[in-house]
Amino acid sequence: MEPILLVHGGAGDIPDSRIQPKIDGNKKSVEAGYAILKNGGSALEAVEAAVRVMEDDEAFNAGYGSVLNLGGEVEMDASIMNGVDLSVGAVTVVKDVAHPISLARLVTDKTPHILLAGAGANKFAAEQGVPTLPPGSLVSPYAKQALEEYKRRKDTRTEIGARNPGEVGTVGAVAIDKNGNLAAATSTGGINGKMVGRSSDTSLVGCGTYADNDVAAVSTTGHGETIAKYCLAHAIVKSMQYENKNAHDATNQILTQMTDKLKNTAGAITISKTGDIGIGFTSRRMSWAYRKGNEIHYGIEKGQDNVDIIS
Ligand code: GLY
């Protein structure tokens, strides 16, 4: 199987000032994940590595630079799923860890559970030797500005507003490795101005993340309450499984159905078990990139598909 690594950097209105940082960050993330696939690593390792890069990048709403809750704090959610055996790990409302996606993976590897929340997730992180950062370390100046702006206008229709460069975007990755194994990973700071303690779709298996070697791997982004009501990632996978749709059609049709019904927007990335790719969003923009062979494809506008050839 030809390995593929596909990432997104958030769906929403996305201000013009954020376009280039997101494209650059997505390409960097793809390179990190693809290097693992190229060296024979697993899809699971690759999606974790790709998401970690975006968690370090303040162009995205994950890890450092996450949006803030109404209390001015970063509370993060992440989930990761292995298509080999449907094993899944997730964390929600976790604070002061640099890479929630790696903590989610530890939940899969080291506990009998699928989701740890809040103080329990942080206690588990400390027990596993994951460093606890000093409070406030993940708060960026842009995020503070975005919260102030939110308090003025109270607009949460999209995950990323057009007017404010501090509203950034959930990140995610899906991959297929040389053995045909699939995996998906998603990480977020949530929605700007959320209530303290709010959990998102990103921590919920079937909503933010899903992977099954028999069908496909999906990661979603966008208005979390809407995505959760529609079980978006699972809906895309089941549409492929039972309606025999390819990744592109399933991703775009399910997103459109969700937005028609629930009147909020989202985006998703999908790789099928045969390596067929789906990228879709009902928001104005969504940044994405993938690498297959010596080509990196990327875009952020509707219909865009730029290509860099790696020599
Ligand atoms: N989709 C991410 C969130 O709503 O928090």
From TrEMBL:
The answer on whether this UniProt entry bears the keyword Cytoplasm reads: no
Biological process GO annotation list?
L-asparagine catabolic process via L-aspartate; proteolysis
CC terms in the record's Gene Ontology section: cytoplasm
- Describe the reaction catalysed, as an equation: L-asparagine + H2O = L-aspartate + NH4(+); Cleavage of a beta-linked Asp residue from the N-terminus of a polypeptide
Catalytic center at which residues? T170 (nucleophile)
**Self-association and partners:** Heterodimer of an alpha and beta chain produced by autocleavage.
- Which protein, by its recorded name, is this? Uncharacterized protein
Organism of provenance: Rhynchophorus ferrugineus (Red palm weevil)
